[in-house]
Amino acid sequence: MSQNAVAAARGAEAAPEKVPADPSHGRRWLILLVISLSMLMGVLDGTIVNIALPSAQRDLGFSDADRQWVVTAYALAFGSLLLLGGRIADLVGQKVTFLVGLAGFAAASMVGGAANSFAMLVVARAVQGLFAALLAPSALSILMTTFTEPRERAKAFTVAGSISGAGGAVGLILGGVLTQYLNWRWTMYVNVVFAVVAFVGGIALLHRTPRNTSSKLDVLGTLLVSIGLFCLVFGFSNAETHGWASPATWGMLAAGAVLVAVFVWWQTRAAYPLLPLRVLLDRNRGASFVSLFVIGAGMFGVFLFLTYYLQQSLGFSALKTGFAFLPMIVASSTASAVANNVLVRRVGPKPVVPLGMAIAAAGLGWMTTLDLNSGYLAQVLPQLVLVGIGLGTVVAPAMSLATSGVAAADAGVASAAVNTVQQVGGSIGVALLSTMASDAATNYLSGRNPKDPGVLAQAGLEGYATAYWWSAAVFVLGLVVTLLLYRRGVPQQDEDSAPVVHM
Q1: Shared-domain flag, residues 178 and 280
Q2: C-alpha separations of 133 from 82, 218, 240, 271, 419 in Å
């Protein structure tokens, strides 16, 4: 979903009043346009690919067990390398990193659009995620250094955030249009258009910034967390094809858990930690990161399985599917504004975020009643709106509080961690939900004729319903954890600080 999307300013590690002015300051509003265009491209890529995925699956002939990797490869590469991308922006410079990120993302999109096999498409998606991990933090840090006056910076981030938020809705429609009237490959090729325009603008408008020689790479930390997360996701995915008792499943899960645990230990010892643990140890921030992980897992899952339900079970076209999701986006955006600007300011996050978790869980539980004869207006729309309200009630307060109150030196890494947690949650969530859905469909087919179209359609419904139940369970778990962790009362927030923007 938007992946509401998007990324955080890892490279900006100085307090707002201490950020040196960029020589490009006089062209700052044109620079904002270029940066916003790059953000829009990132958000579009998330929703646009989901809408096109059923068509890509039919064209390339990959299995239901494999389809998750088209989503997961991007999210895992992006999420696990985002913190490293911020460090590279510090070391190499914002302009160079931004332009390399744009060029690499465009090249990977071309390869993905031209893919003639499942493996080629997945590799292209992973490379997209890698270059997005360079692009996102450099883009946000450019905004931080270009807009040095607090009020102007707040306006700039509001514009960037609004464009990114609208990108999710635009991606739904554009994905449907391109898939239906051209083909799914154009949902990848369209990134090249955005990237070329932003690249030309970046060359013309941006000045090279000095490298931060005091910043060092945490190479060991990067390897530990990247390999550990890959093992976890791959382990959950293996369960779909090998079963939970297979060494390929539990062995990978165990290895991933150990590597992530070692990463946490190493962050307490590293001279330049990738993710200083002090960022996570505040109760409100810790609860917010849990919330964003849950949102990632639930949000990615809802879009993936509901897209297949609408297109394969109800026979919706790609364009009609895109429009079908719009009420959910509107409900989520409206709930976000109300939750963050009204409710949290009056009663604090402790009752608000768990309430959002409960609403999302209820909507997902209700989705399990969908069948082959469900009508969109009477059966599908109410659940979509309810889930959208739940997601919006959680995501805005969680994003705001995840970076609230951090030290100036940790502002960038805390902001980057917001996107990292959400993308990693999406990777693990999609892998787990896909496995559970596949198991349910396989169990339903046992003893039945697998060549009967009606039996196959019902097996698909069983899989989708199982995924919704598990997603609802994740939100219930999030409800319990956030209810315990969030402090009572209204938190103090810095009105001049720049909000987190997604990519």
Answers
A1: yes
A2: 4, 16, 29, 23, 10
Q: Does 418 have pLDDT greater than 50?
A: yes
Tokens of 117: 């096999």
Query: What is the C-alpha end-to-end distance of the chain, expressed in Å?
Result: 11
Distances (CA, A) of 114 to 75, 107, 109, 121, 126: 21, 11, 9, 8, 15
Helix (H) or strand (E) holding 122: helix 118-146
The answer on 307 and 434 residing in a single domain is yes
What the block records as the tokens of 347 is 């009663």
pTM to 2 decimal places: 0.83
pLDDT of residue 260: 92
Q: How many CB atoms lie within 10 A of CB 474?
A: 25
**Could you tell me if residue 473 is inside a domain?**
yes
Residue whose token pair is 């140890």: 281
Say what the pLDDT of residue 211 is.
65
Reduce the DSSP state of residue 2 to 3 states and report it.
Answer: strand
CA separation for the pair 182, 190 (Å, rounded): 12
> Can you give the pLDDT at residue 212?
61
CATH number at residue 352: 1.20.1250.20
- pLDDT tens, position by position, 191-232: 999 999 999 999 988 887 666 666 677 889 888 988 988 888
Query: For residue 230, what pLDDT is reported?
Result: 86
Could you count the other beta carbons within 10 Å of the beta carbon of residue 424? 24
Computed over every residue of the chain, the mean pLDDT equals 84
Burial of 204 (0-12, 13-18, 19+ CB in 10 A): exposed
**Phi, psi of 275, deg, nearest 5:** -140, 90
Q: Maximum Cα–Cα distance for the chain, whole Å?
A: 71
User: What is the domain extent for residue 324?
Assistant: 16-217+272-485
Compute the Cα dihedral for 91, 43, 196, 185 and give only its sign: positive
Question: Which tens digit of pLDDT belongs to each residue from 43-92?
Answer: 888 788 888 999 999 999 998 878 888 988 898 888 888 878 877 877 78
CA atoms within 13 A on the CB side of 193: 8
User: What's the rounded Cα separation, in Å, for the pair 17 and 7?
Assistant: 22
The total number of residues written for the chain in this structure = 503
